[in-house]
Design a protein that fits this description.
The chain is of the alpha/beta class and about 250 residues long. The chain is about 35% helix and about 15% strand. β5, α2 and β6 form a beta-alpha-beta unit.
């Protein structure tokens, strides 16, 4: 594992990198959560995961509260890496960040080769009116219902005391996201969604097609919001297909 500034962790550094996958975690998630994506990569393909402030080695930093600022920091970190074709993978809140990061990298002349939007409704399907920031009870109830955290963590008051400010801030950040209407990326989008996800309908998932000038492919997988905990092989297959297509295009 190698640090790349504060915002990125390179989990599989390569001497000669042909392609890079940058993973952006969900609300409350950290860079270590998505290391399993390495299992779907070739020896010359690199996995990089975002480490948001407020967790693990960045636990003493205040969590991000502004998506535009977070995206700017992520874009700085990604463009500081050696230039190779790049796939962005984001789950839930991370999918919104990945979409905005793809737009920002395109503006900087470093367009991405593909976007994997997982567990997130299309940007144009967001509710028109922002919700009030969730309180602790609402955040914990959502975590228990949706998954994404070890149940033992939710029963440990000391760990919860550290996690709750991050979870609360991330939840508010995700709910406050309002994309620019009509925003589109120029790369293909692979959409992953759980058949029983209470947060993302089939229509929400297919609506991602309106946000790319290329093609959008939707994979409906068994499970809920964290469907990849049930069938990780299917997720890896979809990611590998996206990576292979990007290599062919490159």
């Amino acid at each position: 594992m190698v640090r790349s500034g504060d915002w990125l962790v390179v989990h599989s550094p390569r001497q000669a990198t042909a392609l890079r996958v940058v993973a952006l975690p969900h609300a409350g998630g950290s860079a270590g959560y998505y290391t399993w994506l390495r299992d779907g990569l070739e020896p010359d393909e690199e996995l990089v995961c975002a480490q948001y402030p407020g967790r693990q080695e960045r636990r003493h930093e205040p969590p991000a509260i502004d998506i535009e600022e977070a995206v700017a920091h992520l874009a700085d970190a990604v463009t500081a890496l050696p230039p190779v074709p790049t796939i962005l993978f984001g789950h839930s809140m991370g999918a919104a960040l990945a979409f905005e990061l793809a737009l920002e990298l395109g503006r900087r002349g470093a367009p991405v080769a593909g976007l994997v939007a997982s567990g997130r409704r299309a940007p144009g399907r967001r509710p028109p009116i922002p919700r009030q920031a969730p309180d602790d009870a609402e955040v914990l109830a959502a975590m228990r219902r949706l998954g994404g955290l070890d149940p033992a963590v939710l029963r440990d008051p000391d760990v919860l005391a550290m996690l709750l400010p991050v979870l609360r801030a991330d939840s508010a950040l995700a709910e406050s996201y309002r994309p620019v209407p009509g925003s589109v990326v120029d790369c293909p989008i692979t959409v992953l969604t759980g058949r029983d996800d209470p947060l993302v309908s089939q229509e929400d998932a297919h609506a991602w097609a309106a946000h790319t000038t290329a093609n959008a492919t939707v994979h409906v997988l068994p499970g809920g919001h964290f469907f990849f905990d049930r069938d990780r092989a299917a997720v890896l297959g979809a990611v590998c297909s996206t990576v292979d297509t990007a290599r062919q295009r490159a």
